[in-house]
Every structure is written in structure tokens, then in C-alpha cells.
């Protein structure tokens, strides 16, 4: 297997929750090429799955040192900062990810951060803007449904979950929300 094939296999193992083998591959790849940010990114994702945020941070910092223009790396580091309750740093990283690639997941993380920092009134128009810009992104509809449901409007929230299912019929989360 060449480097790229091993890397893809490592991501597949992580997705399949085979953490030990994914970590073995990440470290093997780092030994093969210590200038590959993806190998450190893989280990950062693994460590995040294990709730080892300091180790995850070390690895994503190495990845960013090798590739400072990767939105996914900033988004992951922002998520780690959020877990560590370093919310200003999280927001800066999410904003950088959005600046680099208009990352949908970073936009969703910004909304989550707004909710965590008592900026809910700002989160709703922000998310409406995201839905208007990318109406085919089921996750934005789900997040809006969740916010509306928490606000006590379960019937209105259903319409957002239904729209998410129209976009992504396989979305188990939206389906479960409609079954409640």
C-alpha cells in the first residue's frame, strides 16, 4: 500500500471505530513522512474520539504547522478548543475555517458556539442565512429544528426535520426526532 492508500485506510478504520488500528496507521504514516499534515490530522481525530484533547491538540497543531491553509484543521482545532472551554480560541478557528473555504461544518460550529455563549438571538438569523445560502444542507435544517424544539415549538420544529429528511432520506437523527 502506498502512503495515500494507507491514509485512506486509516480514515476508514477510524470511521469503523477500529481506533487501535487507525492509530497504528497514523503513527506509521508519521514515521514514513513527518512532513505530511494528514498523518497528524488523522491522529488528532483519533485522540478527539478518545477524549484525549491535549494529545489531539498537539497533533492538530503539528498538522497546522505543516499546512496553515486547511479549513478542516482549523475546524477540528476549534472543536477541541470548544471541548476545553476555550471559547474565544474556538470562535477564531471556526471563523478562519469559514474564511478559507466557507466550511459548512464550521458554520454549524459557530451556531453551536453562539448557543453556548448565550447568543441564541444571533444564532437564529445566522442559521437562516446559512439555510438560504445552502438549502440542500440537511444539517442546517436539523440544527434549526433542534433550536426551535428547545424553544418549546415542537410542531414547528417538525417541519425542519421533515425538510432535512427530504434532502437526506437516510438521516437517522431527523427520523428519530419525528418519531418522538
3D structure, described in words:
With 180 residues, this protein is mostly helical. Helices cover 80% and strands 0% of the residues. It is built from 11 helices and no strands. It has helices at residues 3-15, 19-32, 37-49, 53-66, 71-83, 87-101, 104-116, 120-133, 138-150, 154-167, 172-179. Helix 2 runs antiparallel to helix 3, helix 3 (37-49) packs antiparallel against helix 4 and helix 9 runs antiparallel to helix 10. The protein starts with a helix and ends with a helix.
In total, how many beta strands? 0
Give start-end ranges of low-pLDDT stretches.
none
Distance between the termini: 47 Å
Helix content: over 70%
**Helix and strand run:** HHHHHHHHHHH
Radius of gyration: 18 Å
Shape: globular
Count of helical regions: 11
Strand content range: under 5%
Derived structural class = mainly alpha
**Overall mean pLDDT score?**
95
Largest sheet data: none
Summarize the structure.
This protein is mainly α. It has helices spanning 3-15, 19-32, 37-49, 53-66, 71-83, 87-101, 104-116, 120-133, 138-150, 154-167, 172-179. The chain contains 11 helices and no strands.
Amino acid at each position: 500500500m502506498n502512503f495515500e492508500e494507507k491514509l485512506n485506510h486509516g480514515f476508514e478504520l477510524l470511521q469503523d471505530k477500529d481506533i487501535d488500528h487507525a492509530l497504528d496507521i497514523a503513527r506509521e504514516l508519521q514515521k514514513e513522512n513527518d512532513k505530511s499534515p494528514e498523518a497528524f490530522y488523522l491522529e488528532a481525530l483519533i485522540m478527539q474520539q478518545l477524549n484525549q484533547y491535549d494529545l489531539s491538540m498537539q497533533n492538530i497543531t503539528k498538522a497546522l504547522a505543516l499546512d496553515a491553509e486547511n479549513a478542516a484543521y482549523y475546524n477540528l482545532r476549534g472543536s477541541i478548543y470548544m471541548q476545553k472551554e476555550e471559547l474565544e480560541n474556538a470562535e477564531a478557528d471556526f471563523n478562519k475555517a469559514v474564511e478559507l473555504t466557507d466550511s459548512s461544518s464550521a458554520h454549524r460550529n459557530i451556531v453551536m458556539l453562539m448557543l453556548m455563549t448565550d447568543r441564541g438571538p444571533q444564532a437564529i438569523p445566522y442559521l437562516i442565512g446559512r439555510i438560504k445560502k445552502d438549502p440542500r444542507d440537511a444539517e442546517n435544517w436539523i440544527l434549526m429544528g433542534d433550536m426551535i424544539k428547545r424553544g418549546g415549538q415542537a410542531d414547528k420544529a417538525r417541519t425542519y426535520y421533515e425538510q432535512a429528511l427530504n434532502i437526506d432520506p437516510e438521516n437517522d437523527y431527523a427520523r428519530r426526532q419525528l418519531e418522538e
